[in-house]
Specification:
Blueprint (H helix, E strand, L loop, with lengths): L1 H30 L5 H8 L3 H29 L1 H19 L5 H29 L5 H29 L3 H5 L1 H15 L14 H24 L4 H24 L7 H4 L2 H30 L5 H7 L1 H21 L1 H18 L9 H27 L7 H27 L5 H26 L7
Helix pairs in contact: 1-5, 1-6, 1-8, 2-3, 3-4, 3-5, 3-9, 3-17, 4-5, 4-8, 6-13, 6-14, 9-10, 9-17, 12-13, 12-16, 12-17, 12-18, 14-15, 14-16, 15-16, 15-18, 16-17, 17-18
Length: 458
């Protein structure tokens, strides 16, 4: 009996290891390219308005499809969804190293986002299934903590690989990890029974939201070069407004099977959390892209040194995320989110006074405060959203908040790029973009103060 129990424990440990590696792979890809963009821009002779799509394309597709990925995992089974997602993610990681142009890399990144959107909900479901019900908190901490570590280490790993080998190795490193994960999942995790097979999936909602956001981002991208009054740019903005109206109409008609079901739209505490997330979402993306760009172009840092340069933000973010859970139990959501929002705003304003002669030491306070804000806010807002919906809606609620975060971040990054590109001096453009981000974070702070409740877990 004891031998059988030890064997089962070993199998569970290896299965959890597979999930940890999966999370690390996805999380690392969100941030690892931040320090590689300047070098990729030089190699492909592309400006930041093009290279930003290497981050934006991946995250936008991931964010828009995350809810659908969860429903597909329920329909076909989590194990199968994870294996399909890993396959898509890995194939296009390898293909991205073989293409010769920036647009080929961007297309591969977008398709990798589809794989990630299939993987993430399946990982969450499998981890919670592997852990006993009374260890659910530990299961959640394992996933979120691993994701935070992957996000934090991404820029450093990306910088090391870019400087010592090539940015292509950021893609290639996914291959051995994916093979190990695939084999462990295939051999150790039992095929689960699909659930909710008859529940329709809102494909029309996914399609219209994707088209609308893509049209808006393309308008922000091409408008920099063509001018905002160019007929093509005006047409893209018109497409965005028409299709986003169609999206809301479709969501209203679909009702309970929409990307954001009717009962959740009418849940004002939940939607307040979503709106606060939307206000804050540009900040993390902007920091990931524009601080490394400032380090490399103005301060003449290498990719590796730029990755190390981001550590005050990333490590403070990871530590704050770790402690935010314990603080939530004692203080509740409102105080933590308000402090986090205030830190985000203050960090943005402190970093919005860069010049060609700014020293790294003078940036440290702003980066530490910003990292604190990111860690406190993002780790708490999801919990705040989950605690105001029925338990059966918890998984969907987490996916929707993540969709708000990623979609808002993608649009925010596009807007930041449009602002930065209007200035001849990089530092001047970053200053104005960061000031705009700071204003949005103040709106987020107001939402947290007025409408976010103080419900605690336990």
């Amino acid at each position: 009996m004891q031998g059988s129990e030890k064997k089962n424990n070993k199998v569970s440990a290896l299965a959890l290891l597979a999930m940890v590696l999966s999370v690390l792979m996805i999380a690392n890809d969100f941030t690892a390219f931040a320090v590689a963009l300047p070098i990729m821009g030089q190699e492909f002779q592309a400006g930041i308005n093009k290279t930003q799509w290497i981050i934006n394309g991946y995250t936008l597709m991931f964010g828009v499809l995350i809810v659908t990925g969860g429903r597909l995992a329920d329909r076909i089974g989590r194990r199968k969804a994870l294996m399909i997602g890993i396959s898509i993610f890995t194939v296009f990681s390898v293909l991205a190293t073989l293409v010769s142009g920036i647009f080929g890399v961007i297309v591969c990144r977008i398709l990798m986002g589809i794989g990630g959107a299939l993987m993430w909900p399946a990982i969450l479901g499998i981890v919670f299934g592997l852990m006993p019900s009374h260890r659910a908190g530990l299961a959640g901490a394992l996933v979120i903590g691993t994701a935070g570590f992957g996000n934090a280490m991404g820029p450093m790993l990306g910088g090391v690989l870019t400087d010592l080998l090539s940015w292509r190795w950021i893609f290639l490193i996914n291959l051995p990890i994916a093979v190990i994960v695939f084999l462990l999942v295939y051999t150790l995790i039992e095929d689960d029974k699909p659930i909710d097979q008859n529940e329709p999936i809102d494909y029309a909602g996914v399609l219209t939201l994707s088209i609308a956001l893509m049209a808006l981002l393309l308008a922000l991208d091409f408008g920099i070069g063509l001018g905002w009054e160019d007929p093509f740019i005006v047409s893209l903005f018109v497409i965005f407004f028409v299709v986003i109206v169609a999206f809301f109409y479709i969501e209203y008609k679909v009702g309970q099977y929409a990307l954001i079901p009717t009962d959740m739209v009418r849940n004002y505490p939940f939607m307040s959390a979503g709106l606060a997330t939307l206000m804050m979402s540009a900040i993390f993306f902007a920091v990931l892209v524009y601080l490394p760009l400032f380090f490399s172009q103005t301060m003449q840092y290498s990719a590796m040194k730029s990755g190390v340069g981001l550590l005050p933000v990333m490590l403070t973010f990871a530590l704050a995320s770790f402690f935010a859970g314990a603080l939530y139990e004692k203080l509740g959501a409102k105080l933590i989110l308000s402090v986090g929002s205030a830190c985000l705003a203050l960090g943005m304003f402190l970093l919005s006074s860069l010049t060609m002669h700014t020293s790294y030491a003078s940036m440290l306070l702003g980066m530490f405060i910003l990292g604190m804000g990111v860690g406190l806010f993002y780790s708490t807002i999801t919990t705040a959203a989950l605690t105001v919906v029925p338990q059966k809606r918890a998984g969907l609620a987490g996916g929707i908040i993540f969709m708000f975060q990623i979609a808002g971040g993608s649009i925010g990054l596009g807007l930041n790029t449009a602002i930065v590109s209007q200035y001849q001096q990089l530092s001047e453009g970053i200053n104005m973009a960061f000031k705009v981000n700071g204003v949005f974070s103040i709106f987020g702070l107001i939402i947290c103060l007025l409408w976010i409740g103080n419900k605690k877990t336990g």
